[in-house]
Amino acid sequence: MLRSAARQDWLPHAIIWLGIAVTAFPLYLALVASTLTPQEIAQAPMPVLPGDQGLANYGAALFEGTTMRLSPPVISMMWNSLLMALVITFGKIAVSIVSAYAVVFFRFPGRMFFFWCIFITLMLPVEVRIMPTYEVVSDLKLINTFAGLTVPLIASATATLLFRQFFLTIPDEYVEAAKIDGAGPLRFFRDVVLPLSRTNIAALFVILFIYGWNQYLWPLLMATDKNLDTIVIGIKKMIGTGDALTEWHLVMATTVLAVLPPALVVILMQRWFVKGLMETEK
Length: 282
Fold this sequence. Notes:
Number of strands: 0
Strand content: under 5%
Oligomer: single chain
Distance between the termini: 35 Å
Largest sheet: none
Mean pLDDT: 84
Helix content: 55-70%
């Protein structure tokens, strides 16, 4: 029986390992290219083993940028991306958890109407409403400002929906007990709802951090100042066009550095991420 079960399991495991290899091989090539010289990268075929220029390439990318100064040093762009991702993440969580709390635990006229208005915005991502959003931000004089980069991306229908689904699983006895103890809405939210929502907040933190870190279109339109470039925009600017020289060893080093923060967030919060999604589905 054990042998037959093992034979049946080999195919799913083989498919998983194949998928890992297909996904990881381009990342491995980027890592190798980040340790080579431009001449070695230009070879056909390119070496598939790491070179000895890794420290020099990463140091140049982090603190100097490209030779043509098409982009600022990577460390400043990573700082911009980190601040943008954290502001968007905490802003989305704060707005969404409060709105979901109001929809679930308060009874007011038009409660479900407002919820469905929030839910419908799932069909209107930033790419769809890019022109009116840009016009509003422009009228508010927020072009080339950090507020312009982050504030329009803070509202989140997805996070509101996930928090609402979880709040619906909180027993009514908790609400009644809080009323008997004299706890008002704010105290109930602080002492009961927030502690119960920790795993859901952690799961959403992972999703929203990656969303904020990988933003491309909105920062491309909103920030023309090089000092506000994010890491994703910087990689695009490093790739020269026309007669401009592309320093691929620095581009690959920047790409590897850009992958590290989201990967670390996923690895460090993996247990909370899975647990939070499972509790949301109850």
